[in-house]
Amino acid sequence: MKILFVGDYSNFHATLARALRRMGHDTTVISSGSRCMDTSRDIDLQRATGKWGAVKYLYKIYRLLPRLSGYDVVQLINPNFFELKPDKIRWLFDRLRRQNRYVSLSLTGNDPFYVQACCEGRDFRYTEYRIGDERAPFAIQNPRNEIDWTTDAMLHHCRYVYDHIDGAVSCLYEYHRVGERFLGDKLRYIGIPIDVDAIEYTPLIVADKVNIFVGVKSEMMTFKGTDRLLAAARRVEADYPHLCRVLLVEDKPYNEYMRLLKSAHIVLDQLYSYTPATNALGAMAMGKVVVSGAEPEYYDFIGERELRPIVNVLPDDEDIYNRLVSLVTSPQLLARLSASGRELVVKHNAASLVAERYLSHLPFNH
After folding, report:
1. What share of the chain is helix, strand, coil (3-state, %, to 5)?
2. Are residues 205 and 146 in the same domain?
3. Can you point out the beta strands (E) in the chain?
4. Helix or strand or coil: residue 84?
5. Beta strands at 103-107 and 167-170: parallel, antiparallel or unpaired
6. Tens of pLDDT along 168-180?
7. Rounded CA gap, 214 and 266, in Å?
8. pLDDT tens, 113-141?
9. Would 143 be classed as within a structural domain?
10. Could you tell me if 213 and 261 are in contact, meaning their C-beta atoms sit under 8 angstroms apart?
11. Looking at the structure, do residues 112 and 203 belong to the same domain, yes or no?
12. Do 266 and 287 touch, CB atoms closer than 8 A?
């Protein structure tokens, strides 16, 4: 099959495309490389700042359109798969539908329905937008964000895309839970693909101090809660300087980030999620112990009854601190979590397995 992936978040499409290519399919990825991550793509499409940048971006898309035709599947990273206003995206969406066989959507990040659900607080005990009945720090600091995501124009556009796609796949429990209300049988959970064969596992051994690794995308720091994770880690470092050190890495390309990650023992991922995402899963595949989302709903959703390697923390500063202290003071615990973390990723997120799930959801691949 010929499959076109439009856009990418955190290497999701790029990794899935590589797995499908190894299975004999013809795949093409067009993206910005997830901005500072600089992930792999076949066609580079980045938007420069300013009015002239917008004009050049749109012109490049129009010039590319004849090449974006004749595919069996077009996989869109988000209803806002190009960095344009909804009316322009709508026209391009309809064009892609006309000139290709099947159009599918990836639920991999914020969209208007997901943000609306987070703000209403019906589905989750906490999110990046709400903690219980209170607004989360990101929502307080960025009040326009939830407003901009949930305007009538954005909600209408999202509804139009949901209604006119042929299928959809989700990568996380949270996105699936919200998306299935609107998409029903169109939606299939496939998970996040991790190229485990390309990631070397190293058993975790602490020879000196425990390295607490904090990888930061500066623009996402409050959104992901890494500011609070970092603050707790600094506090543990101050209280237990003989046991641990904090390693801070900011805004690195994906390949360089993965190289630096090798020195980590503990990786602080994100605070407000129910489930581990790409960064956490990749780190676990390497043998790192990850502090991230791992609520019971996540394990139940993927059908995992035995492996519990992810250190789940609540959006509470004392809880984060206490969990980190329990880790840096117990090398034996770190070793056990390291081994079971790799096992969990291989069992549920190996790229080949995710690719098989993806293909099984296509109606003409049987």
Report:
1. 50, 15, 35
2. no
3. 2-6, 26-31, 43-44, 73-76, 103-107, 130-131, 134-135, 167-170, 187-189, 210-216, 244-250, 266-268, 289-292, 311-312
4. coil
5. parallel
6. 999 999 999 999 9
7. 9
8. 999 999 999 899 999 999 999 999 999 99
9. yes
10. yes
11. no
12. no
Same domain, 265 and 355: no
Range of the domain at 159: 2-193+351-360
Instruction: Look at residue 68 and tell me if it is in a domain.
Output: yes
pTM for the whole structure: 0.94
**For the chain, what is the domain count?**
2
Per the listing, tokens 């959507």 go with 105
CA distance 135 to 114: 16
Q: For residue 366, what pLDDT band results from cuts at 50, 70 and 90? A: low
366 within some domain: no
> Phi-psi category of 34—alpha, beta or left, where left has phi over 0 and alpha has psi -120 to 50?
left
Q: Quick check: is 216 in a domain? A: yes
Distance separating alpha carbons of residues 29 and 16, to the nearest angstrom:
10
Q: Is beta strand 130-131 parallel, antiparallel or unpaired with respect to 134-135?
A: antiparallel
**CATH number of the domain encompassing residue 274:** 3.40.50.2000
At 214 the three-state DSSP class reads: strand
Q: What is the mean pLDDT of residues 50-66?
A: 92
